[in-house]
Amino acid sequence: MTPRTPPVDIVAAVVTALTQRGAVAAVGGSGLLAALGLAEIVRDWDVTTDADEATVEEALDSIGVHYQQLAAGDRQFRTRARYVIAAASHDIDVLVGFALDDGQRVIELPTRVTREWRGLPIADPAVWAEAYRLLGRADHAESLQRWRDAQPETVTDRLRTTEARVVVLVEGASDQAALETLAHGRGNNLAGDGVAVVSMGGVTNIRASLERFGPHGMDLGLAGLCDAGEASIFRRALEGAGLGASPSGDDMERLGFYICAADLEDELIRALGADTIERIIDTAGETGPWTTFRKQSAQQGRAIEAQLRRFMGTHSGRKIRYARLLVEALHPAQVPRPLDRVLAHARLTASLGRAPAG
């Protein structure tokens, strides 16, 4: 799903003005999460820079925006300066010399650009994983760490030091969490079975993942899980990797790739039912946010199942958390077929050392 963001024109002007003055500027916060496919909604922009205050003020003045300099040292924050631009529908926070206090010392969080997204320079995930950890946002810190762990070079290095014989390719961290939770609940030791579940960080990475882990790369056994809307992308990638001529759904399953009816959340919601999931939300302490979410105008008239899918997908930490909680609540007979079959295929393939017949 394409993330929903505020307009980028003003934040783009801010970073351009800073860059023109020799400063490094990067978008972090929820903008970073969205850029990595870890969040679906960006409400405001956070920009960090290590430039001096005079340079920042000159840059902001040059683009004619109204801004306020606010306190930057409240609570844990030890940022040198903070400027807030109030745009029509959102705020832009410019954090100068981003730093946080961990209770014993001040941790400086440098501005580093690692990629570009929608024309914006995007901050270093490692820096923001540390920032979220210090701020007590374990959900976002974990999401960023999982994303880093899923990067090709990290995954390749890890698999080379294990006994993995089969990789299960999934789109994101929530899919990985669901499969690993299901296996653990069944008493299966995936690592011991020679199976590794690998989050690709988005469906667009399927072709590269097949190349890296398949017969032209590490030559591992392959399996996978995908959403119905992305099945055609998987089919083309499998064909391009020489694993089938535009495989149909049945052909994909013979190759070890299984399709969720809509997506993971839809499979789990249909398996458990809305009443059970609302009880899980209550146990998780999120009845308040859930009630508030349902009152939003955009949710009026929508089926509760659609509301639940949207609620769980509003940020990555929640998506991963509920993937685990919902899988843990499944009775054996309720396990969605794609999840059950992809694990069975992967474990059988690993035990045989080759693709199972049929």
DSSP helix fraction: 40-55%
Mean pLDDT: 90
> What quaternary form is this?
single chain
Order of helices and strands: HEHEHEEEEEEEHHHEHHEHEHHEHHHHHH
Instruction: Name the shape in a single word.
Output: globular
Between the first and last Cα atoms, what is the distance in angstroms?
34 Å
How are the strands of the biggest sheet laid out side by side? 1-2-5-4-3
Number of strands: 13
Strand content: 15-25%
User: Helices and strands: which structural class?
Assistant: alpha/beta
Low-confidence stretches: none
Number of helices: 17
> What does the radius of gyration come to?
22 Å
Largest sheet: 5 strands, mixed
Give the structure's gist in a few sentences:
With 358 residues, the chain is an alpha/beta fold.
Fold and architecture overview:
With 358 residues, this protein is of the alpha/beta class. The chain is built from 17 helices and 13 strands. The strands form four sheets. A five-stranded mixed beta sheet has the order 1-2-5-4-3. The protein is globular. It starts with 8 loop residues before the first helix and ends in a 6-residue tail after the last helix. The model has no long low-confidence stretch (mean pLDDT 90).
